[in-house]
Amino acid sequence: MYIKHEKIIKGRGDWRKRNEVKKLHIVMTVVAVFLCVSIAAGVVLALLKVKKSVPSGSHTGTVSSLSASETGSLPVYDDSLNLMLADVSTKIPDSYRPTLTGFGSVQVDARIVPALEKLTDAAKAAGCPLGLKSGYVDVETQEKNYQAEVKRLMTQEKLSQIRAEDRAESTVGRGGYADCQTGLSVCFSAQGEESGKAFGATAQYRWLQRYAADYGFILRYPDDPSASDGISSKTRHISDPSCFRYVGYENAIKMREYSMSLEEYVGYLANR
Question: Starting at the edge strand that comes first in sequence, how are the strands of the sheet with 130-134 ordered?
């Protein structure tokens, strides 16, 4: 009887052990499922964040515009530089000196080079390679160009000196009053298959219209359909689809959103 009783006790112990093992398996299964669900949820949230960070209109599979996180890599300067005006009626401050450096075949202010590099690299990756036909021009050279244009208009087009000067101000610009003297402006040319076309008819121009603001650049002299002579009342300058100006990322995005020229935007800020 004693032996039988001992066997019964051992049988109950084995049953308890098996029951505990089953419970442990259930707990481990529940923990594993919970971890898998948590990981999956984390991946979904991360993908959603990445999707939100990509600006609308970007091309999948091509480098065409900066994501929201990449805009932090663009240079940030004070608006006293970004929004510096130089036009027919606004002279560049005598104290202003651009920090010049070479970029391709032209000179520009070194402060815009990081953004300009990103823009040209992105355009090339999108199949719209850009060249540079002009950049910074010093005051003396600009004044010579202006006087040469005045003379041409007087001799070839028989304009009076006053009319010739007025016209030349809107096409070439006087020394000290031309945006190209800031070092913040460049005029692009199209490379590749589009090189033989007028720039305003190229894929490069269409790409710049859509994406230049993502890199802090705006079209400096936009077309004004209301200007019968081609000279915009907004900028008092003839339209030029090749000339783009650095104004900083935030300003460029707002100007694109508001469809404003640089003159209009500066005036808008002054009246706020």
Answer: 130-134, 185-190, 240-246, 217-221
DSSP helix, strand, coil percent of the chain (3-state; round to 5)? 55, 15, 30
Report the alpha-carbon distance of residue 114 to residue 119 in Å, rounded: 9
In this structure, CATH architecture of domain 65-137+178-270: 2-Layer Sandwich (3.30)
CA–CA distance, 191 with 205 (Å, rounded to integer): 11
List the end-to-end C-alpha distance of the chain, in Å, as a whole number.
103
> For residues 203 and 240, what is the distance between their CA atoms, to the nearest angstrom?
16
Q: Could you tell me which residues come within 8 angstroms of residue 77 by beta carbon, excluding any fewer than 6 positions away?
A: 111, 248
Give the torsion sign (CA, 91, 169, 134, 266).
positive
Q: Which of 29, 37, 215, 35 is nearest to 123 (CA)?
A: 215
Asked if 107 contacts 97 with a C-beta cutoff of 8 angstroms, the reply is no
- As given in the structure block, the two tokens for residue 140 are 């003396």
pLDDT of 1 higher than 90: no
Over residues 61-98, the pLDDT tens digits come to: 334 445 544 555 787 899 999 999 999 999 999 999 99
